[in-house]
Amino acid sequence: MRQQKRVSVVLLACSLGAAQLVAQALTQADAVTPAAATSADVKADAKPDAQTNAKTDFLPRNPRYAIRTGDSFEVNFELSPEFNQSVTVQPDGYITLKGIGDIHVAGETVPQLTQTLRDAYAKILNDPLIAVVLKDFDKPYFTASGQLNHPGKYELRGNVTLTEALAIAGGFNGDAKHSQVLLFRRVNDQWLSAKLFNVKQMMKNGKLTEDPILRPGDQIFVPKTTLSKIKPFIPNAGVGAYGAIAP
After folding, report:
1. Do residues 11 and 234 touch, judged by C-beta distance below 8 A?
2. pTM higher than the cut 0.90
3. CATH class for the domain made up of 72-136
4. Tens digit of pLDDT for each residue in 101-110?
5. Scanning 132, 144, 223, 231, which has the fewest C-beta atoms within 10 Å of its C-beta?
6. How many CB atoms lie within 10 A of CB 12?
């Protein structure tokens, strides 16, 4: 009986020792990851090139919406209503207009689109007065992934803060690391800005002034805790691990 207990103690010590080594390795990895994530900018495609050290072209504070494929809008003529029409942007970025044919409009803002249409119809109309009204377009959204109860893509309506977005996504699950929530924000077509938030401390101290307001396209990621990472490496986790040495 004593010999069985000794064998059990040795096996448990080996298991806990291995788990401790794994935990230390993962802790070191976690210590490196936030440092990289809190850098000012992250390259979206992560491919080094000659322009990596070049000055980043940041988006304006209040960027205008750019027309995308699948968007639909109405084109209204104040003096020539016979040309009024509803159009949808095709997958290649073109639209088909009455009396004009195909023109490329994807990527243009509404003022730019209006001017493009005026230039196009100036060939057959004298100083056309045109109004563009968006009908169906890509609505603002944010994405939430990682250790959340309902990760996914959500429509962004009004001013939504980080903690509100986490609640919309179902809140943290049991494996979530509340102290290292990452918020990714697009700076331009090639760069993402990343910032780390200690939501646990924020909520504990009630510092809601530190709770950022999301912008369209923001991405939230909630990582796993170290304990949840090492669970698969601990054999017979729970009562079973100690049952062999119970008196």
Report:
1. no
2. no
3. alpha beta
4. 999 999 999 9
5. 231
6. 16
